[in-house]
């Protein structure tokens, strides 16, 4: 009985593929890496366009500067161990006075859209001191993925965390779901200062890091 040619080809292809399992320890020592280059140009609006109802609550204490005139720049890296048990952030900025920093977050939202806070670096302590040298290095845990019952200044009643999947009510509470959002390109860094409290001083959308 003749063996069909297609079956023979398929069998040969399968035999040439590597099928052995990898060392499980590699899950903690190899990483999936995302990066963002922050700039004022990525902010979706000028600070002068802050909704009137929010101006007092945000409490800007310095005059704003148009996006094109700001010199602030930054680079941030968000990397996850392949087993999704650990995540790390490395950040460096230039053109920003650390004493002016009010907030620093990772938000969820596509380019040009304001989104809710997913990671609040203010929980680490005084940001002016933390970023005094213009750099930040921190390990993230599940506890750093925030879940707040009400959106602040946006649509009341919605949870302040991204849905794990569009259309589902499940919220982002784990590093695994945070990595899933990074893979979809809907996470961004946003640094807020005394002059730019609503939209932010500079923003950077996270994408897979270049090799």
TrEMBL record:
Where does the secretion signal sit in this chain? 1-21
Q: Which residues form the CHRD domain?
A: 66-206
The keyword Signal is assigned to this record? yes
Swiss-Prot/TrEMBL keywords: Signal
Q: What is this protein called?
A: CHRD domain-containing protein
Originating species: Myxococcus llanfairpwllgwyngyllgogerychwyrndrobwllllantysiliogogogochensis
